Amino acid sequence: MDNLKLWERYKKYLCTCPDLGLMLDISRMNFSDGYLREMEPRMQKAFAEMADLEAGAVANPDENRMVGHYWLRDPALAPNEKITAEIEFTVRAIREFADNIHAGRITSPGGRRFTRLLVVGIGGSALGPQFVADALGSPADRLVPHFFDNTDPDGMDRVLNTIGVHLTETLTIVISKSGGTKETRNGMLEAKRAYEGAGLVFARHAVAVTGRDSELDRVAVAEGWLARFPMWDWVGGRTSETSAVGLLPAALQGVNIEALLDGARRCDTATRRPDTLTNPAALLALMWYHATDGRGMKDMVVLPYKDRLLLFSRYLQQLVMESLGKELDRDGNVVNQGIAVYGNKGSTDQHAYVQQLREGVLNFFVTFIEVLRDREGASMAVEPGATSGDYLSGFLQGTRRALYEKGRESVTITVDKLDPRTVGILIALYERAVGLYASLVNINAYHQPGVEAGKKAAGAVLQLQEAILRQLRQEKDRAMTAEEIAAAVGAPDEAETVFKVLLHAASNMDHGIAIQREENLWASRFQAKA
Q: Do 298 and 292 form a contact (C-beta atoms < 8 A)?
C-alpha cells in the first residue's frame, strides 16, 4: 500500500479523544473494510456485559464476588451506599495519613521524619505501585520508594543495603488481601528482622493494606501498627492500582492521586460509551481479536518510547495474561485462551530485538506508545534543527514504518504528556480493553484458577521438605540418596522433587544439610550435619 493510501487509512481509522489527550491509531492493522461492521454485534454484547459488571453483577463465580475497580474512581457508581461510603472514606484517610507523614505529625519513634518507603507485596500488590512510582517519581519525592516484590533473600538484602542507615526513617507498607500470601509474609518477616536488628520496633514503622480480619489485619492490630487500610474482596490484585494498594504508596511518595483518579475516571467515561469507532478500549480489544484470530495466536509486544513507561509492559503482563490466560471458556469448553505480553522501551528496542521483529518469525503484533511532550522546558539541539526528543520520535516513526513494510502489524497510542492524569488514563484504558476482549472470546477475566493451583503445588513442596529434613535429622549417622529419602518419607514417586529440595538445602547454611557429591549428581548422598 502506497503512502497516500496509508494516509487515507490513517485519517479514516484514527480515534481521537481530546478530553483524554489521547489518540489511537489502528491504521497499520490489516483488518478488512468490513471487519468492524461484522464484529459490531459482538462488541455491543461486550458493552452490555461491561454495564452489568459495573452495576454489581457477580463476575467471579468461583468466589461469588462482584468486580468493582471502576467504582474506585467514581464511588457514586457503586451498587450500594455502604460501598460508596467506604471508598470515599478510604481515599480521605489515605490523603490525611500521607499529609500527616509529610508534615511530621506522624514520625518514627525517635521523632525523625520518614523519608523512605518500603512496599512489601507481590503481583498486583507490587507491579502497579512499582510502575506508578517509576513513571511519576522525581527528585522532589516526599518519600523515596523501595520494594520487596519477591521472596528472594538476596533481592531483599539488596533493597535493605540500598536503604542502609535510612532504615530508621523508613515507613513499611505490607500489602496482602488475604494476609496469607507467603511471599509477602516472608518479606514482612525479613523486614521486621532488619528493623529489630537495628534496634527499632517494627510496628512503629509499619502500615497494613489488607482485608478486614485477615491474618495480616490481626497481626497489625495485635502489634499496634501505625495504620491499616482496606482491600475489598471485589477488587482483584491486578486491577487494584486505584485502591489503597496503589494510592497509599503513591500519595506517600508525593504523587497527585486526585489527578490519577481523575484520569482513570475520565477514561472510564470515554470507554463506557457503546460507540465502537470513538471508543479506544473497544478498538484495542478488536485489534487484539483481529491480530490473534481471537485465539491468542500472536504475542503482544509493548514498545513505549518513554523511559518512564519502561515498567508498563511488566504491569500489563499481569493485567492481560492473568486475566485472559484461561483453559476454559464460560461454557466450560477447553479453549486455552490468552495473549502473551512482552516489551522493552524505544529506542533501546532498535539495538535489542527489532531485528527479529522485522525479519524473524511473525508471531506478534506491536503496540507503540508515544508521548508527545519530551520534557518540561526546552531541549538543546544535538545537531542543527533536531533535539534528542526529535530523534526519539523519529526512531518510533521509522520502526513503525520498517515493521509495516515487512507485514508486521501495529497499533499506536499517543498521549500529550506523561503525568498522574495520563497514568490513570492508561491504567483504565487497558483495564477496560481486557474486560471487553474477554467478552469477545467468552472467558471470565476476573478469576485465576491457575495461580491458585501453583500456590497449592508450592505448598505441597514445602510440606515435603519438612518431612525430608525431619527424616535426615532422625538418621544423622546415615547419608542417603534422594531416592532413598523419598522412599523413607513415603513419597517414592517424588524422587526428583526430593533431589531438588536437598540440592537447595545443601547449598545454604539454614538447614544444616551436607552433600557428598557423586559423578552422577543425582546419585549424591545427603546427610544432616552433626
A: yes
From 182, 455, 500, 511, active-site residue: 455
Catalytic status, residue 455: yes
* Cα dihedral across residues 398, 399, 404, 409: positive or negative: negative
pLDDT at 61: 72
**Is the pTM for the entire model greater than 0.90?**
yes
For residue 334, what is the DSSP state?
B
Cα separation values, 495 from 209, 297, 505, 522, Å: 40, 37, 15, 10
Tell me if residue 351 is catalytic: yes
Tell me whether residue 511 is one of the annotated catalytic residues. Answer: no
Q: From the candidates 54, 183, 241, 322, give the one annotated as an active-site residue.
A: 322
Q: Which helix (H) or strand (E) holds 482?
A: helix 482-488
Q: What is the DSSP letter of 113?
A: P
Q: What is the pLDDT of residues 417-471, one digit of tens each?
A: 999 999 999 999 999 999 999 999 999 999 877 666 767 778 889 899 999 999 9
Radius of gyration in angstroms for the set of CA atoms belonging to the chain, rounded to a whole number: 26
Spell 99-128 as b/e; 16+ CB within 10 A means b.
eebbeeebbbeeeeebbbbbbbbbbbbbbb
Question: How many alpha carbons fall within 13 Å on the CB side of residue 343?
Answer: 26
The C-alpha cell that represents 248 in the structure block: 497509599
Residue 373 backbone dihedrals phi, psi, to 5 degrees: -80, 125
Q: Read off the C-alpha cell for 326.
A: 484461561
Q: Which of 351, 405, 456, 519 is labelled catalytic?
A: 351
Residue pair 526/515 in contact by the 8 Å Cβ criterion: yes
β strands within 149-279, DSSP E: 170-176, 206-210, 227-230
